[in-house]
Amino acid sequence: MGNPLQLKSLNHISLVCKSLEKSVDFYANVLGFVPIKRPTSLNFNGAWLFNYGIGIHLLQSDDPEGMTKNPDINPKDNHISFQCESMGAVEKKLQEMKIEYVKNRVEENGINVDQLFFHDPDGSMIEICNCDNIPIVPLSENKVWSCSRFNCNISNRQQEHQIQQMIPM
User: Fold this and answer.
1) Which residue intervals of the chain bear CATH 3.10.180.10?
2) Average pLDDT of every residue of the chain
3) Which end of the chain is more exposed for a tag (fewer CB within 10 A), N or C?
4) Region of residue 67 (left: phi > 0; alpha: psi -120 to 50; beta: else)
5) Which residues contact 137 (CB under 8 A, 6 or more apart)?
6) What per-residue confidence (pLDDT) applies to 149?
7) pLDDT band at 1 (very low <50, low <70, confident <90, very high)
8) What dihedral do alpha carbons 83, 117, 15, 29 form, nearest 10°?
9) Sequence-distant contacts of 22-31: CB under 8 A, at least 24 apart
10) Catalytic residue among 96, 127, 141, 160
11) Tens digits of residue pLDDT in 17-51
């Protein structure tokens, strides 16, 4: 397994949109992304946004009228997921903004993960969750990780300790 391509992190996702203006407004004002400078050598209409350690690149569709939007909010559809601090606060804010959403709950060994799914203006699915509740357990290794920075630091220390134990003195 390992890291054959030497990846470091997720850099950005690209989304094609019907209306660049509406999508920038959504990602900035609903999800808190900040518009950033885009290379001037790009010769097509788009916008770059950044926050939470990742970028979102919005690309204006060449055929906005040909883009279809599925009205159904389906948690099993392709989506972008964001970890949040308070599911209650997110749900309240979505209600205030009159954004239609679907709630879901995942349970694993007595641990619950709450999820809220909704669409951006172009029908791309967004998930907001407290997914950090469930540890990440690789199927092929005997390590436990978590999405939270605190738990990752603990896991990193555990990994360093495991590695030190494997190195012959």
Assistant:
1) 10-63
2) 85
3) C
4) beta
5) 143, 144, 145
6) 46
7) low
8) -70
9) 22/121, 23/47, 23/58, 23/120, 23/121, 23/122, 24/49, 24/58, 26/120, 26/121, 27/56, 27/58, 27/120, 30/97, 30/99, 31/82, 31/126
10) 127
11) 999 999 999 999 999 999 999 999 999 999 999 99
**What CATH architecture is 72-163?**
Roll (3.10)
Measured over all CA atoms, what is the biggest interatomic distance in the chain, rounded to whole angstroms?
A: 67
**Cβ atoms of residues 104 and 75 within 8 Å:** yes
H-helix or E-strand spanning residue 77: none
How wide is the angle at C-alpha 159 spanned by C-alphas 156 and 165, nearest 5°?
145
Q: 119-141: per-residue pLDDT in tens? A: 999 999 999 999 888 887 778 76
CATH for 10-63, options being 1.10.10.10, 3.10.180.10, 3.30.460.10, 2.40.10.220:
3.10.180.10
pLDDT of residue 89: 94
In total, the chain counts a number of residues equal to 169
